[in-house]
Amino acid sequence: MIIVPSSNTIELCPIGVVHRQRSDEDVNDGELISRIVVDKKYADGLVGIEDWSHLYVIFWMNRISDEKKTLLCLGNEPKMPTVGIFATRAPVRPNQIGLTLVELVRRERNVLVVKGLDALHGSPVLDIKPYPYWLKGHWIVVTKYKTPAYLRKINKKTTRESQSHE
Amino acid sequence: MIIVPSSNTIELCPIGVVHRQRSDEDVNDGELISRIVVDKKYADGLVGIEDWSHLYVIFWMNRISDEKKTLLCLGNEPKMPTVGIFATRAPVRPNQIGLTLVELVRRERNVLVVKGLDALHGSPVLDIKPYPYWLKGHWIVVTKYKTPAYLRKINKKTTRESQSHE
């Protein structure tokens, strides 16, 4: 048995911020174009990012107040069960971290133009990582998975693939 | 044009910690079993998580010191170019956030037993999210993507699929 160090508060610095053209945009529109303005002091970190078509964007959902946070999402429809927050993507989580896989449309120096980012205007961006990841010579893309029955009734079986680049 | 609020430091609290059985385990072995011990005060957040076969684990790579952090990864082989940190998964990034898609083997109350987590023993866990995500009635799984030529020479074209649950 290994002793686990006690965990303390962790501090992060935003590396950039999400910009929107208009305040009334529907962030759940998968075709919506967003701009990630990376702080100029971090711009060197973007070199070569345009060789990837898809990126994970990790951001901070800064409009979630502590009072709204919860551990249980109460089922709001007859057949929607109450589930834990970690079994959902609801933003009202202990650490309001957002994670979205987006398509990189283009880079304009320190600005990434991306498609499909569901972050609100002004959301601080914490990290950007390439998709997919790889391990010992294999790209890792999980296409066989189990999902909850209550969501399978809502979501179609077919996966929506992004535009092909390759 | 909308004014973007200035970004300040963000504070997070670990919700749990990665436990390993032995200190000499190879965290890059995709078959390696790990335990995520979720703090008991957050355990309610795990209700129903076993309905998902795959989870994103967002963790903190707490052994990365500030001095090691970089924005450019220097190419260390003749055909490996120098690229920005956000075009890589290297841990020496401005915010040392780790993101790994794992397979959920089982839940034991506040402990998740997972396969494929490349976090070191004692890494604080920040968030857990279900895979895949969904949007307007569609599961989103990206199977067509562009990757850099220098990595395509190393990684096989075939994707390694996880065990099927469905």
Rg of chain A, Å, rounded: 18 Å
> What would you call the quaternary organization?
homodimer
Q: How is the main sheet of chain A built? A: 6 strands, antiparallel, barrel
> Biggest interface and its residues per chain?
A-B, 96 and 95 residues
The CATH topology of chain A is given as Elongation Factor Tu (Ef-tu), domain 3
**Tally of alpha and pi helices of chain A:** 1
The CATH H-level superfamily of chain A is YaeB-like
Record the strand order, biggest sheet of chain A: 2-3-8-7-4-9
Average residue pLDDT of chain A: 88
Share of helical residues of chain A: under 10%
Please identify the top-level CATH class of chain A: Mainly Beta
N- and C-termini, Cα separation of chain A? 47 Å
Number of strands of chain A: 12
Helix and strand sequence of chain A = EEEEEEEEEEEHE
What is the CATH architecture descriptor of chain A?
Answer: Beta Barrel
Query: Proportion of β residues of chain A?
Result: 35-45%
Tally of discrete structural domains of chain A: 1
| Sequence stretches where pLDDT stays below 50 over 5 or more residues of chain A | 1-6, 162-166
Shape of chain A: globular
Global structural class of chain A:
mainly beta
Fold and architecture overview:
2 copies of one chain form a homodimer. With 166 residues, chain A is mainly β. In chain A, the strands form 3 sheets. A 6-stranded antiparallel β-barrel of chain A has the order 2-3-8-7-4-9. The longest helix of chain A has 4 residues. Chain A is globular, with a radius of gyration of 18 Å. At the A-B interface, β1, β4, β6, β7 and β9 of A face β1, β4, β6, β7 and β9 of B.
